[in-house]
Amino acid sequence: MNRFVRLVPLAFLVLLAGCGGAEQPAPSPSTSSQPAGLSSAEQSFVDQVASIAPPLADTPERLARRGGTTCDSLGDGRPRDQVVDQAVERFSGGTYTVTTDQAAAIVDAAERTVCVK
Length: 117
Description:
By secondary structure, the chain is mainly α. 62% of the residues lie in helices and 0% in strands. The longest helix has 19 residues. The radius of gyration is 27 Å and the shape is globular. The chain starts with a helix and ends in a 5-residue tail after the last helix. About 8% of the residues have low confidence. Keywords: Signal.
């Protein structure tokens, strides 16, 4: 019995050591900067808006959704000035406020990318 009691901890250590194995390399980052779930048009919109108002690109999925909403506003036949005013509100938030000029450029970017059917 005494011999058995000594072998159990030894066997446990051997098993434990075997489980460690070699360190697995970290998975390599994706070569694409496109977040999962964005279409190429949405990614193009995000890229264009990033050059207009860089802080907005921190949340690409949300930005793409808002671009789609901008397309809906344009498709509803609203006057462009009204769509730009809505874009100021839609894309501003937190500590960042979009200017009218930036909003107009964002609406242009949406028209060139996510609004194209």
